């Protein structure tokens, strides 16, 4: 049965008036929405997911559109007999660091004159907690946290006269792509020759973890908040280092009691994977999620290997050519071309 008691607001903003346009937010927001709606992922009903993507004509979204998406969820809950469990809030776009615990989530109309035309991450979190509707609130922020003086970010238009009684037991989990006063990066992944695609490093790591990389086999193949934290903390810096970049994620959990299960992993503990190569007579290597070498051999012969859930890297042994990322799940056959 779908998780009809779970809801989500997903925002991807690539278009800006005064800041450099981005490439990845729209694609990444759609990928995260796909995971949320997948039966092997969040398993949310599509109507429970509010997706907001930016546009240039007209220039959207405005804050009103974001707040209306949340209000639509509140109204749907009020009109039903569903007891809500969890809210996911995902943002991908430009961000500005306010302090170590707060980020301004920049909207398209932001300029140096309208420097507060951004959403305050901490104010939105607190207002969502004050509603008292959700037992758990997961917030994922794929954005920079560099600082510009005077930026505070706006609070939401929705609010309660006073915090709901149930808000005292709401648990919050905030996954930030990077540390305060640091950048988050989007990179081009040449996963298919001639068809480059830009993705945020944080979202790439996040989805890899949610799709099995963060699976804790000692806990019945569960993916938990702490397991996801540990996976991203290891995987994301390694992804960045592959691109000669530095990116260290941040995690903050409040009012929690024990480790919370995000989803049950549908990935088997070990998956038999076969990798074939289009070009023979080359030395090729397979690396594990921590960039340790698992196997090296001649590309004239396919690799067949048992792999645990996670992200793996295929490349020429001398690191030339295209690096391909594979994530074993339902797909177990991969082809590498360089």
TrEMBL record:
The record's listing under InterPro entries reads:
Pept_C14_caspase
Q: Which residues form the Peptidase C14 caspase domain?
A: 7-217
Instruction: Output the GO biological process annotations, alphabetical, semicolon-separated.
Output: proteolysis
Please give the superkingdom of this protein's source. Bacteria
Mention one GO molecular function: cysteine-type endopeptidase activity
Q: What is this protein called?
A: Caspase family protein
Q: Which organism is it from?
A: Pinibacter aurantiacus
Its ancestry begins with: Bacteria, Pseudomonadati, Bacteroidota, Chitinophagia, Chitinophagales
